[in-house]
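FORM 7B: Structural annotation worksheet

SECTION A. Query
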Amino acid sequence: MVNYPAFQIPHAQDGMPFNSVQQLSYAFVMLILPAFMIFTGLFQTPAVNTHWPRITKALGGRQVIRTLHFWGLIIYLVFIVIHVAMVIMHGYGHEVSKMVFGHSDSPVDGGVIFTALLAFVVFFHVVATKTSLHKSHIVRQLNNALVRPLTRRLIKLPSRQDFTGFKTGRLFRGSGCPPEIDEYTAMVANNYEDDYYLEIGGCVERPMVLSMRDLRELAKDHSQVTMHNCVQGFSWVGEWGGVPLKTILDLARPLPGATDVVFQSFRNMGRDNAVYDEGFYYESAPLAEANQPQTLVAISLNGKTVPIENGAPMRIRQEISTGFRSIKWVERIDVVNRYDIVGKGRGGWFEDNDDYDRMQMI
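SECTION B. Predicted structure
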């Protein structure tokens, strides 16, 4: 270790293709660092960090975990730069022969084989990048085949967040543009009291229409302090008051064969935000997620009516998933036996148009 900072190549150890520092470095990068990256990656997953919130808190919170994961990336990059420099210093053929054969006796053969493999990696990277950019449906199909089995397991992990006592602050960051229609503007002007009604229908025994008074009565001061896990990276803690969605679904009584819940918003993307194409805004959830204990029909934030930018008068909170699926400005809820015939059939507006995953839990 003294030799390398002094830009001196240490003497080779008899019978060992790599010296002690190299062996320790490789062991760290091949065994310890990947485990660290997988662990910090999993604890950025809402379904994981909400099921084991004490571990998340012990690690300093989701933002600290994201920062640790980023520094893992930096360590990888530093290792690559130093590793490539050392291979050049020691001699390319000499070193890659060790990697291929475990000895330095075949520098030409080792160099040819290693270079061919390296060229394949570069080629595969270019193909994969072009495919993900221009044929995103292939990536989605691969995701459904490889990742979906894991997300189906994650969906069964109930959120157990409890940030009671955590300073929630006066502001909770909002995103997206609120509905720009007369119906919504009138509700805002009248404080939603006599104008807003939540419709619950579809494959249920008892279709319902609930007013704000009905929702407050069902809520009975129920609240939960949870963290918003935004797909864009920011995280905020807020105290949400409202009715567990399971309570409403139990009252409506989903029919046999019902599989999913579809949430429709007052929002229309092209009309309310010129950045996007026209289309009614909606989201969906499997019944297993809709019945999670912390999946909430939220009517208050930090003790007050939900602000307009946060989805007034009512929004959904799906705590085991990323924030964009906690749909705002909700107009109605439908229980369905097929979500793939709604919109473009992928389960939500962003899933339909931006290739997000419907079960964005990882």
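SECTION C. Observations
The longest helix spans residues 62-90. The domain at 162-354 is CATH 3.90.420.10 (Sulfite Oxidase; Chain A, domain 2).

SECTION D. Sign-off
Analyst initials: ____
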